Amino acid sequence: MNPRNKVTPGTNRPDTLKGIYAVWWREITVFFRETPRIISSVMSPIIWLLVFGAGLGGSLSVQGLDYQQFIFGGILVQTFLFSSLFYGAYLVWDRKIDVLKAVLVSPLSRSSIFLGKVFGGVTISLMEAIIVLLFGYLIGMNYSAGVFVLALVLVALASAGLTALGLAVGSFMESPEGFQLLSSLVLFPLFFLSGALFPINNLKGPLGILAAIDPVTYIVDILRNVLTGIHYFDPMLDLAALAVFIVGANIIGVWAFSRMKS
Amino acid sequence: MAIIETSKLTKHYGRIKAVDGLNLKIEEGEVFGLLGPNGAGKTTTIKILATLLDPTSGTATVNGFDVEKYPSKVRESIGIVFQEPSTDELLSGYENLKMHSMIYGIPKSEVDKRIEEALSLVELTERKNDLVKTYSGGMRRRLEIGRGLLHRPKVLFLDEPTLGLDPRGRETMWGYVQRLVKELNMTILLTTHYMEEADALADRVCIIDHGKSVAIDTPENLKESMGGDLVTIVSDSPKIGEVKKLKFVKKIEKLDGKYLITVDSAAENLQELLKKIGKVDCVEVRSPTLADVFMKNTGRGLEEAEGGWFDKIVQQSVNKQ
Ligand SMILES: Nc1ncnc2c1ncn2[C@@H]1O[C@H](COP(=O)(O)OP(=O)(O)OP(=O)(O)O)[C@@H](O)[C@H]1O
Ligand SMILES: [Mg+2]
Question: Where are the domains of chain A?
């Protein structure tokens, strides 16, 4: 520090967009440096498709589609459902180690930090979805480039809701031990009730009702519709449900994140 | 107006009173030291002031803003170096600083210059592109200090800034702090349990124990409050009666076989003291330290108060025998 350019200390008003970008950039950079996370997030859906789809479904077909192709949309959703939720809930670790505190004491608003994290989760989901969609061509799916892009748009939207939900959970959780609970109480019910692996109208009675309030149901339905044409709901209903979910999850998430102390 | 002010600040964790009715008034441009043993409540106090924790009761303002009511206003004027490492291990030193400067909205034209300055100040220029996980503990500490300064906050909290630094690193660090105050007119609140550190750096020190402030003053006044220099004497048959008559002797205490004598100006009076006391086996003369002040105010030694669990267990088993 040269006395010639003596500067008086002062207050710092952050540039919100730059701040959101900084948080996003950090998330992505760190993600790419954690090799095991990348490998697992790409390999697990492929293994599912190969083992589950080909092994179990070899003899099955649903509405004229090969079972493997039927569950393809579901497995795509599973990929980013798991990664978005876990990515969000990972917050509880960020809080345990002190890295997050350094951001929380900055003048960047809580909602900006939250948004940066959501964008991080969406970006990671998109990268995974691209890999899964490319893999789809290898197992006999055929969709046009336009459908490919449309699917990615839907993935981005859905992941914005799911990441926000994960962040909300991560803000409420007191310690990483709660992670087990997240899987068994949130993740698996959301996934198995969604009709990712079977036709949704197989679920009757109370399970049917649960499936109907599971936001993932609509995410699966619209993606399967786009990719294979099979659907159980009106696409407009799917989109409306998705919109409600994204807005709701983000409102809850921002609220939980803002009330969170370190 | 004081730039940091707390009034009856209190934080309870269940039954533990981490901070207990703390009243502080810190002026702009001051280096203020919180000195106390492990668990005294130093970090808790800093976390409340940095808006990371809400107090159970009492109030605190930083730069004129109440920490509970206007946390984002407070955050605009503070910087903090945490006690625990808080840099990103998977980012390089440079990337950590870059991220920090974006979050604080440092103007683009300034960023590179400031990062360069900070890196050279903490002597990490050569390692700036290595991931932080390859840094030593002390290097990481220095990076955090560099980061805390990057946005030139009005108020800088340093929680045990020299923890894990070697003696050379510690002295360099003291140098930075002194320069910061001089050149940037920052207000610094630092915590430490090294009395030499508080002594070397702080304009004023608050000695804190069990969440309570036991003494606040300049290090000089605190030491002066001890009433003179300390002479320790080991002797079989000292003529205590004679010594008591000397005018410059303030106080005589017997501590496990040693005599602790407080005198005005040992330099002038030691000769006479020794003449009167008779045959001695051993003499030690020293000026009082903040540790003595701590001892006087709490009845315990600073080292003793922070004894590790291992020492305590050993102590307990010894006591039992
Ligand atoms: N999250 C917490 N939950 C329960 N008790 C806590 C928590 N954080 C701190 N404490 C307690 O509050 C007291 C003060 O802790 P604090 O961390 O402020 O001490 P400190 O002066 O910073 O000590 P050190 O020199 O070890 O850093 C301690 O008794 C500690 O056990
Ligand atoms: Mg501490």
Answer: 16-258
Rounded to a whole number of angstroms, the distance between the first and last alpha carbons of chain B is: 57
Mean pLDDT of B172-196: 85
B83 and B150 housed in the same domain = yes
**Protein residue with its CA nearest to atom 29 in ligand 1:** B39
Tell me the chain A residues in contact with residue B185 when contact means C-beta distances shorter than 8 Å.
8-9
Contact B90 A101 (CB under 8 A): no
Q: Which amino acid is at B234?
A: V
A46 φ/ψ angles, rounded to the nearest 5 degrees: -65, -40
Tell me, yes or no, if B67 comes closer than 8 A to chain A by beta carbon.
no
**Residue B137, C-beta contacts closer than 8 angstroms, at least 6 positions apart:** B164
Nearest Cα residue to atom 1 of ligand 1: B13
What does the alpha-carbon distance between residue A69 and residue A81 come to, in Å, rounded to a whole number?
A: 19
- The verdict on B153 and B240 lying in the same domain is no
Could you tell me the CATH number of the domain that includes residue B273? 3.30.70.920
Cβ neighbours of B184 in A, within 8 Å: 1, 6-9
B30 and B177 inside one domain: yes
What ipTM, to 2 d.p.? 0.85
| Least CB–CB distance from A104: residue in B52, B77, B152 | B52
Is the CB of B40 inside a 6 Å radius of any atom of ligand 1?
Answer: yes
Phi and psi of A64, rounded to 5°? 75, 0
Percentage of chain B surpassing pLDDT 70? Answer: 93
Q: Which amino acid is at B99?
A: M
User: In terms of Cα–Cα distance, which of A152, A164, A97, A205 is closest to B84?
Assistant: A97
CA nearest to A200, candidates A185, A187, A184, A212: A212
- In Å, how far is B163's CA from the nearest CA of chain A? 16
Q: pTM of the entire structure? A: 0.84
Of B280 and A3, the structure prediction assigns the larger pLDDT to B280
Average pLDDT over residues A231-249: 94
Confirm whether B256 is domain-assigned: yes
CA A132 to chain centre: 14
Nearest residue in chain A measured CA to CA from B116: A1
Distance CA A170, CA A34 (A): 20
